[in-house]
């Protein structure tokens, strides 16, 4: 099968790989689409990935073979795979945060077998059916949608709050869309790229500004028009610092975007304004079920959240560079084919 393989040194190429063996409790999936994630960008463009590996975890596809011990799944079923569940009993799971289950092995991003290729295997017990009326392509947005839902659920954001989103790439846009689906309207996005600002407005942001338009924070007091919650989706240190400065008393900053540079945290400001900062990693328990339901509900502007032009396997690296430069605002989907 064809696959987009990481070669090392920030380079990728299309290679032929064997179709994976299907264990008795697994199914074989023909990948319909796999979204390019910020994590993939970091792993490839910053060279963390293991040479020879295949990335891509935001996939949806169709069952094409079923292991002998599998019941309840048939060839042709359209599916996504839920994440590994938490133990359900530890401190993190009890708090509804199975992503950081204390009993779970840490995720090994370097040993990951991804879906920038034609076929993947999946644990049949973790499959979820794509609802009727939702395309398999759009279902590939399940994982990032589950992240956006979890991100919003980690806060007590409510209609009437003034919300700031820094960064209007795929993660920021999905966060805006999920906020809007919860009845939150007063959303400002801060984003340097004009194309991404325009897309954020089309998705649901009420205001889109360039980062240099954010007001300077007076010492020990909120800015003139502060925000109760800020979602830092860009991964840029300066955006995180600015987002913290824009918060009102008792405001919350959520770190969603990862990045190489570390922000410097103004602890004095956090003390005087009693701010909270929290990281959002992965999903609620049943987060994929909620994401599929939200995607199928029609409440999200899918055509604005997903870029219209899919890339093929030979286009993955180029799309990663364009995403890192800030050009496409929405999610870029990879169709695991090679150009003829
Ligand atoms: Zn992802
Ligand atoms: Zn647990």
Tags for this model:
single chain; 340 residues; alpha/beta; Rossmann fold; globular
Summed up, the domain count is 2
Give the beta-strand count: 14
Helix content: 25-40%
At the third CATH level, what is the topology name of the largest domain?
Quinone Oxidoreductase, Chain A, domain 1
What is the CATH homologous superfamily assignment of the largest domain?
A: Medium-chain alcohol dehydrogenases, catalytic domain
- CATH class bucket of the largest domain: Alpha Beta
How is this structure best summarized?
The chain has 340 residues and is an alpha/beta fold.
Describe the structure.
- This protein is α/β, with parallel strands linked by helices and 340 residues long.
- It folds into two domains: 2-146 and 283-334, Medium-chain alcohol dehydrogenases, catalytic domain (Quinone Oxidoreductase, Chain A, domain 1); 155-279, 3-Layer(aba) Sandwich (Rossmann fold).
- The chain is built from eleven helices and 14 strands.
- Strands 3, 4, 5, 6, 7 and 14 form a six-stranded antiparallel sheet that branches.
- The longest helix is centred in the middle third of the chain and has 12 residues, at 142-153.
- It is globular.
- The model has no long low-confidence stretch (mean pLDDT 95).
- The site of one zinc ion has 6 residues, from helix 4.
């Amino acid at each position: 099968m064809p696959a987009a393989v990481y070669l090392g040194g920030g380079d990728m190429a299309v290679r032929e790989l064997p179709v994976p063996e299907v264990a008795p409790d697994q199914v074989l999936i023909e990948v319909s689409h796999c979204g390019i994630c910020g994590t993939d960008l970091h792993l490839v463009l910053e060279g963390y990935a293991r040479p020879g590996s295949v990335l891509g975890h935001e996939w949806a596809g169709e069952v094409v073979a079923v292991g002998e011990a599998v019941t309840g799944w048939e060839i042709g079923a359209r599916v996504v795979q839920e994440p590994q569940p938490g133990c359900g009993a530890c401190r993190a799971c009890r708090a509804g945060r199975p992503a950081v289950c204390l009993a779970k092995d840490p995720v090994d991003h370097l040993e990951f077998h991804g879906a920038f290729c034609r076929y993947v295997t999946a644990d049949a017990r973790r499959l979820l059916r794509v609802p009727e009326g939702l395309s398999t392509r759009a279902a590939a947005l399940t994982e990032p949608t589950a992240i956006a839902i979890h991100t919003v659920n980690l806060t007590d954001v409510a209609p009437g709050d003034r919300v700031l989103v820094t960064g209007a790439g795929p993660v920021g846009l999905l966060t805006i869309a999920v906020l809007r689906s919860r009845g939150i309207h007063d959303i400002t996005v801060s984003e340097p790229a004009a194309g991404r600002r325009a897309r954020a407005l089309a998705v649901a942001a009420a205001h889109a500004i360039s980062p240099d338009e954010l007001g300077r924070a007076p010492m020990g007091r909120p800015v003139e028009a502060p925000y109760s919650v800020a979602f830092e989706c860009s991964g840029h240190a300066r955006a995180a610092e600015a987002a913290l400065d824009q918060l009102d008393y008792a405001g919350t900053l959520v770190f969603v975007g990862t990045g190489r540079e570390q922000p410097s945290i103004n602890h004095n400001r956090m003390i005087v304004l009693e701010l909270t900062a929290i990281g959002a990693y992965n999903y609620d328990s049943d987060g994929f079920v909620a994401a599929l339901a939200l995607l199928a509900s029609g409440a999200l502007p899918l055509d604005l959240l997903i870029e219209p032009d899919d890339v093929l396997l030979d286009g993955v690296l180029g799309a990663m560079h364009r995403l890192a430069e800030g050009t496409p605002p929405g999610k870029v989907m990879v169709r695991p084919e090679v150009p003829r």
